[in-house]
C-alpha cells in the first residue's frame, strides 16, 4: 500500500502490526508529505533537526514532535478555513488544544451557535470568545418596548443603548443623528480610539435601506457612508485585511469630494495616512520584486504611530485576516462579477479534500499523549476515509 501511495490505508492498519511499526511508518509519511507539499507550493517544508552524535531521548523527541504537530495543524486549519469549512479548521486547532484559535475560527466562520456550545463545554478557557459569540446572538425586546428603552437610554446619556434600541423600533431613522453626532464629536479630539466609535457605526450600518434612502436622511446617509468608509479602513488595518485598505481610503476620499458634508475629515489627512501605512508596511506585505523598498520618512512614521495608538490590538487572538464563512467556497453560477474593492474578477478556488491530513493531525495528537494504539486505530479509521 505504501508503494502504491495509499498512505491513508497503510497508516490505518499499521497499529494492528505494532505501535513501533506504526510510528516508523508515520515518520516516513511525514517526510514524504512535507516534501510533496513544498513542491506543490501549498506548505513550507518542515524540518526537524536531530542532534549530532546523540540519539533521541524521550523529551527531545516529544518536543520536536509537538512542534511539528502544531505547524501541520496550523497549515491545515488555514487550508480548511480559506476553503469555507470553518468547523474543520476549528477541529485542527482543538486537536492540539489551541482553544482560543479554535473559537476564533468558529466565530469568523459565522458558526456562532456551535461556538457557544463548544465554549460552554470547554469552560473558563473559552469564556471570552463564548461571551463574544453570545453578544452576536442575543435576544431583543419588541419594537414597542425598544422605543421606550431608547428614550430612557437617551435621557441617561447612554449613546450605544440609545442607537441600538432606536434601530429596533418603528422609527430607526432616529438613531442616525444620535450616533453620527457622537462619532463626529469624538473623532474631532486628538486622542480618540477605534474601539469607542466603531461599535456605534457598526450598529448604524444595520439600519434598514428603505429608511436610509429617504430624502430627509440624505445628509445623514452621506455622512454615515464617509464615516463608515474611514473607520472601516482603520479596522481593516487592525485586522490585517491588507487588500481592502487602499480601496476604502480611496472610496472615502471620493465621497468627500462629491458630497457636501460636515465631518471632521480632510482629503489631505486621508491621503497622508494611506501613504504612511503603505510606507511603513511595504517591507512586510509587498514583494521587493514588485516595487523597490523605500524607507518611510520621519513624518510618515509619526502618522503611522498615531494610527496604531488609535487602533490598538484585537482583544481576541485569531480574529484577524479575511473571513471565510462556511460554504463560501462552494461552486457558483457562471455569471462574472467584478469586485468593487479590487477591480478583479471574483473567483472560486477549487474545492480540495484533505481528509488524509486531518487524520494525521489526530494521530499526532494522540501519539503525543501516549494513547493506546487501539484507541488510536479507531480514530484513524474514523477520520481517514471519506
TrEMBL record:
Keywords carried by this UniProt record: Membrane, Transmembrane, Transmembrane helix
Record field: transmembrane: 356-383
PANTHER family: WD REPEAT-CONTAINING PROTEIN 17 (PTHR44464:SF1)
Name under which the protein is recorded: Uncharacterized protein
Organism the protein comes from: Propithecus coquereli
